[in-house]
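Ticket 4471: requesting a sanity check on a complex prediction with zinc ion. Repro inputs:
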Amino acid sequence: MRIEQGDRIGIGKARDYAKDVTTELELRCPGIARIMVAGSVRRGVELVNSIDLICAVDDEVEILTVIDAFTTLSNTYTVQSHDYSSAKFLDKSGLGFSIKVVRSQSFGGALVHATGSVAHVEKLKEIAADLGSTLSPDGLFDLESGSAIDVRDEQNVFECLGLNFVPPEMREDTGELESAVEHDFPSIISLNDIRGDLHCHTDWSDGRFPMDEMVEAAQSRGLEYLAITDHSPSATVANGLSPDRLNLHNHTVRTIGSASTGIDLLTGTEMDIKPDGSLDYSDEVLSDLDIVIASIHSAMDQDQAIMTNRVISAMQSPHVDVICHLTARLLERRAPVMMDVESVFEAAVLTGTVMEINCSPDRLDLKADHVRRAVELGVIFAINTDSHRTHQFDNLRFGVQTAIRGWVEKKQVVNALTFHELRRFLNLPKSDRYEFMKSRG
Ligand SMILES: [Zn+2]
Ligand SMILES: [Zn+2]
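Returned structure tokens:
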């Protein structure tokens, strides 16, 4: 597929391309000390149109070697520009790649400059100028002498400027620098905070791998717990589980769980919310599960009032713990359903229901803007991969990036709880759950 210049690709693909290019460059240029993707990819923007790299070398003569290699990579198609320390090219599909090469002592400054949005970087430059320094694509410099300030890491740059460190994903000029100046910065969630995943599928429904392989894949990525949430009967195309099969499924989850060391399993379902808002299993069946996550998978053309009420009536159930991928969008493939997200978030708080941030790079649902609004309303989140294949547990990063873009704090994320705490949370009546999260501060 040829993408026209200015077209955008999904963050998942962009990360893959960035990895391919950095791997090839590092192989060809042993003098590279550090190389990182910057720009919108690093900020976790859902659709991007360029892949921007910042590279550090210890020896000045290596700069030219890197630029030469970059302009002759296996996917270099049209070189658009290059000078002594930077270059840009398009690949055959029209996707843009750029690189900036600096000495190691300037890496932090160059990375900060190349990562933030234009508006964010402009504000940073003003802050730097007020302090007698200048931030440029080449790094951070003393304004008067013109000499480079030693800022090997971004942390050094923010310290030099008297600011709290701002996570890359938040560098959009939506209030983050004001908070960083005031040193009134929220404790934002990070990838390392996530302890478990509350949404995945196995070959019992539409997943591609047996349950034990999914469990092993989750564990090998350091997850401490995993909910196995195959589909419910209405999801016929996804081989949804009848109550009898679900019973057997629960038994299998418990068997594999008790045989596993180092990872705890939860029985569960990703249950369809039917078009009239009713649930796909009886209360009796649901009360036997450790966790119930619920989703819209059908009748996606309902008007906004009906769709919104459909989700809110599911939230009224004492058994529905989490609402998944609220708008059901598929990036660049399926538009979001009509949904009054504001009312849904208010209902989440009122009913004690958790809202999912789905990590699949095809979904990223909730999207960052919705997450930010939900944070303002006090919503509690689960950041779930919805893995159907073992490698998809790696998608966790995209959901966490989306959460960071929405300013989610660690204390607002249920799967940042320990397994013990999560069990306590799930054993509480829904009406007490938000209070439980608040009480942990
Ligand atoms: Zn789903
Ligand atoms: Zn799912």
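Notes from triage: Residues 11-28 form the longest helix (18 residues). Leaving this open until the requester confirms.
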